[in-house]
Amino acid sequence: MNHSGPLFVAQEALCFYPISTIYDSCPRYLFYALLVASCVTRWTGWLADVFLGAAATYAGTAAIEAFILVASYSKRKDFSPVTIPYLSNNTTLRHDFPQVVTQKDTIFLQPGAMELDGDAVMAIVVTGYLVFLPLQCWSRVLTHERARNLLFYLWNILMLAGSICALVFAANKNEIPTQYMFCYPEFPPYQSTSSDGWQSSWRTSTWNTSVWETFSNATRWAEIGDICYNPCFNSSQILRKPESLESWTESNDSEISQGSQFWNKLIYSKRYIYSLIILCFILNFILLTFKFLYKSRIPSAQIVVIWRERRNIWKSFKDELRGSLPKKSESDRKDQRSDPTESSSRWNRIKPFFTFRFIKALSRMLADLCILFALFFSMIISPLTVIAFIAWIEWWIHNDGPSKESPQQVGQWSYLVGIALLAVSAGVLTLKYRLASKSELENEISRVKEHLEMLERRKDARIESETIGLMH
């Protein structure tokens, strides 16, 4: 093969694993819709269970992938120098190779690839964690039974752990070094190239030797099955097939190279979003402390109940503070009248406020006010945070590149159909007593009676154990 110019050129490229089908746009939007439906139908039992159960299962899968992505993060190999033909900055090859490397005769190569699933996983698990705040403040169904409440809080812990792992992985994702592809000047690359798998023979020794031997031998170049030589296809990821790797050339009109500089300059910046997430984490920690570790005078974590009992709450605050102040005896009053200078002294006026009893009462009141503050802001900040985070992360994912599948393909709309069938099944089961025959009703009554007797025995045993515990 005759070359009128350099033997080969090096061009900057983006190497990445595209978002998996399960985390593509339609399943993500369906997940958001399920969370909204869970909030809207929070007063119903079976319907909220269907929506929140489907959303929790989907988010749980994403959380487990976040664990795997962080756990499988491996240290990258050292940079390897590769000598390249020198090109001037005004080379005519820039028309066919927009990101061609110029004014350099050496580059440093470290194969790697971005895992775009990390962005989608972060969108799912962080949204699932943020929705926990408004749900626990508004939903009585989710906090009514201990078993349901336990499942709800276990899901919250799973989402918190998944969110931490997803945020850690997102920070490490930015450490991927610049990737390069090597091409013949006569054959410009396609904008997108998919990996056909990596053969060990494509790298003989060092990267420098492998690149030069590939382009010095046309037969060897033809064996790679692609126009350009992509060292990043030599990288791997534990959850992906090597063939799912893609390499994109960076150009001004490339969908994947369009950054979000405009949004970063405005309110949707990482610092702003992460600050809201941290604030919601603090509020959630306060509410969990109120729920399990601190016996507060706040009757419930539900805003409706607090508003209904607001006068009793305020009265209990005042009564406890007044009751903690020491009452003046008749002799103290006589001493004050006989010695007005002493009674008017500053210390005597503030001394009652430094007693242990008053400080304890004041601390309890401040803790309860902190809980009220957390509940109030949970209902204001958390919904806005969810909206802001979804808008930011979806814009970020949009700039990762086009969807792998369109909404018309079965891999996208199958999730919606599955949840619709689940909702229909759950609805039919709620009508089982209306549809049951006489014999079925009689059998159900017998089972309910046996179950009721078992519950009565369990209740009596628990009362007996509690009574024995009090006696001891």
UniProtKB/TrEMBL annotation:
Biased composition (Basic and acidic residues): 324-340
Keyword Membrane: yes
Region (Disordered): 324-345
Transmembrane region(s): 55-73, 120-138, 150-171, 272-294, 366-393, 413-431
Key word Transferase present: no
Keywords carried by this UniProt record: Membrane, Transmembrane, Transmembrane helix
Protein name: Uncharacterized protein
Source organism: Penicillium angulare
